[in-house]
Specification:
The chain is built from 15 helices and six strands. It is an alpha+beta fold. A hairpin with a 6-residue loop joins strand 3 and strand 4. The radius of gyration is 21 Å and the shape is globular. InterPro entries: Thioredoxin-like_sf. It comes from Paenimyroides marinum.
């Protein structure tokens, strides 16, 4: 049931559009990434982003990118950059680059299919059609069968799939509130809590395997999509465990490093005291990249062999690992 809940608990927030905007003013505005309250950061992002409808984005962009988790994932890697350069103009430029990729079309289609599913009335007489849409979104026949059994055993409990999803979200929240023990995750999905890149290379060298680094973030929607699509699959996990020394780094980790490691980022002048701040610095300095998810394979001599970003194509990712 936990897997079912985690798969369908996609939080989609409405975006309120502003009819008239001073584009020059809003695009020059700096994005606040240093507020202690993460929810405040997200709300400010959503409010200001909604004004960009007049500045080069359309309504589809506003709805898709305007989801708080998506916006947060886009800017989280900029936390240690020069604050003068972290503006809404930079956010707009990043979105326009993403719009030009094939993944954008695929992601928008996923979003639209999910919205269609939310509005559909639950009726097992239509299960042949509904199950195909569910399978298309979840890519796991076991989860679809689990949903069928929930509906079959409680035929009048939910009117729409949206109501069902919302109920599962509430169940998930209550499970978190009572601190129910979570299922053990494969090592690949655990934060390595290593802040020294050379130490990672040395550990990999001792293991006799190449180093595989997974840069991700708790707030990154695309990382969760990849995990749900195939990263948990046994064949992928076995391949990773047998062929690589793995390091997973959550770039938005708020956990503080031991006091003796706290330092100042020479580039930004910002104090680095969380693991996330060190991970972002490693990704930017070593691999010139700020996106998540981002996978890097490094050889024992420190040479970058391969890199890979977001994909929902399992065969493509298997090819990257081989």
């Amino acid at each position: 049931m936990k897997l079912l809940i985690s798969t369908i608990a996609l939080l989609l927030a409405p975006v309120y559009l502003n009819a008239q905007t001073d584009c020059e003013k809003i695009l020059d505005q700096k994005i606040n990434l240093h507020e202690d309250d993460f929810e405040t950061i997200q709300q400010e992002l959503v409010t200001n982003f909604s004004k960009l409808i007049d500045c080069g984005l359309d309504k589809v962009d506003m709805v898709f990118f305007g989801q708080p988790p998506v916006l947060a994932a886009l800017v989280i890697g900029w936390m240690n950059d020069d604050p003068e350069k972290v503006t809404y103009q930079r956010l707009l430029d990043e979105i326009l680059k993403m719009k030009a990729t094939p993944e954008y079309t695929e992601s928008v289609k996923f979003y639209n299919d999910f919205q269609l599913l939310r509005s559909k009335k639950i009726d097992l007489e239509n299960w042949d059609i509904d199950s195909k849409l569910l399978l298309k979104l979840m890519k796991d026949e076991r989860l679809v069968n689990a949903i069928y059994h929930v509906i079959e055993q409680n035929p009048n409990q939910y009117d729409t799939y949206g109501a069902m999803i919302d109920d599962f979200n509430k169940m998930a929240d209550s499970m978190i509130d009572v601190k129910e023990p979570v299922e053990e995750l494969p090592d690949f999905f655990k934060d390595a809590e290593l802040i020294n890149y050379n130490e990672m290379l040395e550990n990999a060298k001792v293991s006799g395997k190449p180093l595989l680094i997974f840069f991700t973030a708790c707030a990154d929607v695309n990382s969760r999509k990849m995990e749900d699509a195939f990263l948990y699959d046994n064949d992928i996990q076995k391949l990773i465990a047998s062929d690589f020394y793995t390091v997973t780094l959550f770039v938005d980790s708020k956990k503080e490093v031991p006091k003796e490691y706290i330092t100042t980022n020479p580039k930004t002048g910002k104090v680095m005291k969380t693991y996330g701040s060190f991970y972002i610095k490693i990704q930017e300095e070593q691999f010139k990249n700020q996106n998540q998810p981002f996978f890097v394979i490094v050889g024992n001599k420190g040479k970058v062999l391969k890199t890979h970003g977001f994909t929902l194509n399992k065969k493509e990712f298997q090819k990257f690992l081989k």
